[in-house]
Amino acid sequence: MQELHDAPLAPLTTFRLGGPATRLITATTDAEVIAAVREADDTGTPLLIIGGGSNLVIGDKGFAGTALRIATTGFALDGTRLELAAGEVWTDAVARTVEAGLAGVECLAGIPGSAGATPIQNVGAYGQEVSSTITEVVAYDRRARETVTLANADCAFSYRHSRFKADPERYVVLRVRFELEDADGLSAPIKYAETARSLGVEPGDRVPLATARETVLKLRSGKGMVLDPEDHDTWSAGSFFTNPILTDEEFTAFHARVAERLGTDVVPPAYPAGEGHTKTSAAWLIDKSGFTKGYGSGPARISTKHTLALTNRGRATTEDLLALAREVVAGVRDAFGITLVNEPVTVGVEL
């Protein structure tokens, strides 16, 4: 294990924001991860787990405790079964599954971060979610002080949520297991309308795996959602807010606010989200509330490519970012009566 003191954390996040940690440990094996977690628990030391850093907003004062960076490696493929170590770079793992001719995660290409974070957030994009292919998650249970294996049904997956996110102080993900599909080199059925249009196919059709991956990467790049150190639109956490899920009553009230503000001919985005619930678009809400692409005059601004991404233009502080986020939340609430919820995890700060 590598150990540093008063260690900068900003370089370990895609926002490139945040102060230092009292102590930073980099673990390269599961045993090292468990040892570091146990030491922190035994001594009552606050513990921050860092993977790819793509979903973290760390306060400018940093973290008073031990930051544990999980840098484990392991990509094991057995037929259609895949096991990834938590520290594996997710987008690289997706590329390798496509090269192996296996379908199931190809539309999750380009998502930054580590494999271990995917079940926590139930990562999803372009019609796919990891919960559809995850079979088991191996984790260290800090409460029971033992390694446990949780089946898919025990992970309580839902939209951008899971058992791990609901109880963040309990589990440390070590390995993630997937069941993929051998469809003779073809993708899983294309579900997302934008992807289907870009591919020139109908929803439900299959396309060559590499074509699906390349199309998604192109779509994400056009929105600043593929990491590029030269492009400040990618100095972000991707989508900063989750898409709101509204009850029927809430959606009716929202629809009335839209008609009042924008006119009765404007139809807001609406997607089924389970019985009695409808999902709408956070990006649409932000844009229609007056926060357009590139909004902002300071060092933290809305992406010039996508209204759902808040970005560091190079000189921002975490407080700059949070001020912008709070402005957006307040504006959307005032305009449409909906309170947006941040997707990234905040450390030492609150929205």
Automatic annotation (TrEMBL):
Keywords: Cell cycle, Cell division, Cell shape, Cell wall biogenesis/degradation, Cytoplasm, FAD, Flavoprotein, NADP, Oxidoreductase, Peptidoglycan synthesis
Superkingdom to which the source organism belongs: Bacteria
EC number from the UniProt entry: 1.3.1.98
Main location: cytoplasm
The protein's enzyme class: oxidoreductase
Matches recorded under Gene3D superfamilies: 3.30.465.10, UDP-N-acetylenolpyruvoylglucosamine reductase, C-terminal domain (3.90.78.10), Uridine Diphospho-n-acetylenolpyruvylglucosamine Reductase, domain 2 (3.30.43.10)
Cofactor(s) required, per the database record: FAD
Name of the encoding gene: murB
Pfam families: FAD_binding_4, MurB_C
InterPro entries xrefs: FAD-bd_PCMH, FAD-bd_PCMH-like_sf, FAD-bd_PCMH_sub1, FAD-bd_PCMH_sub2, MurB, MurB_C, MurB_C_sf, Oxid_FAD_bind_N
Protein role: Cell wall formation.
Organism: Streptomyces mirabilis
Pathway(s) it belongs to: Cell wall biogenesis; peptidoglycan biosynthesis
Name of the protein: UDP-N-acetylenolpyruvoylglucosamine reductase
